[in-house]
Design goal:
Blueprint lengths: L1 H31 L7 E3 H4 L6 H11 L3 E4 L2 E3 L3 E2 L2 E2 L4 H9 L4 E4 L18 E5 L4 E5 L2 E7 L9 H10 L8 H13 L3 H11 L2 H7 L5
Helix pairs in contact: 5-7, 5-8
């Protein structure tokens, strides 16, 4: 009788443990149905679908469904012929900031102006209203800079003003850049340039660019 009870309890415990594990797996499987490939999620985004979000996140990262990009930030990568695709930068920054109000740019963008800048920089600039500092997100470096004013998209006029705002950070000879910039300005819409300078230019940019605008 004693041996029977021991065997019965062992079988009962095994069944309970099996049912518990299946329940956990069903909850994890259910959570996956809400996730979309290519999207970036914050931990808080998953709380509405899971009552054990930390355990589920650990499981999803371990099995490779999600990739951890930063503290509390995860990506569900799409699959391509070359493997898993990285997170879209706009989506990544938007999720990290929890805000749509930002402008993603890079010092490399100045090269398109044709004013003598040729250096390549391994970082992106994020003008925004909420965060300041350099952060590694998914292995990529983003320099978050708080600004009161910035445009919703990059324009040639803004790039000219932004270049002058950051003139002291350029690796090139600034005198050569300024000479070429003066010629570039003559080809541009001075009205738009004045508006951009007024809205986004710092004191140095206004001092240098105002004499070039007719």
């Amino acid at each position: 009788m004693h041996e029977f009870l021991i065997t019965f309890l062992a079988i009962y415990c095994f069944i309970v443990e099996l049912c518990t594990e299946r329940k956990k797996m069903s909850k994890l499987t259910e959570l996956k149905t809400y996730l979309k490939q290519g999207k970036v999620y914050r931990r808080a985004d998953l709380e509405k679908w899971s009552s054990s979000v930390d355990r589920h996140l650990h499981a999803l990262v371990k099995e490779g469904t999600l990739q951890k990009l930063a503290a509390g930030v995860y990506h569900y990568p799409k699959e391509s012929a070359f493997g898993k695709t990285p997170a879209n930068e706009q989506e990544l920054v938007r999720t990290f900031l929890k805000d749509d109000r930002f402008l993603l740019t890079s010092p490399n963008s100045y090269n398109a102006l044709g004013v003598g800048t040729t250096q390549l920089y391994n970082k992106k600039i994020v003008y925004n209203h909420k965060r300041h500092g350099v952060f590694q997100l998914g292995g990529r470096k983003f320099d978050f800079q708080m600004r009161h004013h910035f445009p919703t998209k990059l324009t040639t006029e803004f790039l000219v003003v932004d270049l002058l705002n950051n003139l002291d950070k350029l690796a090139e000879d600034t005198n050569v850049v300024l000479d070429k910039l003066e010629k570039k300005v003559q080809e541009m819409d001075n009205r738009k340039l004045k508006i951009s300078l007024e809205n986004y230019g710092n004191t140095r940019a206004k001092r240098l660019l105002s004499p070039m605008i007719h």
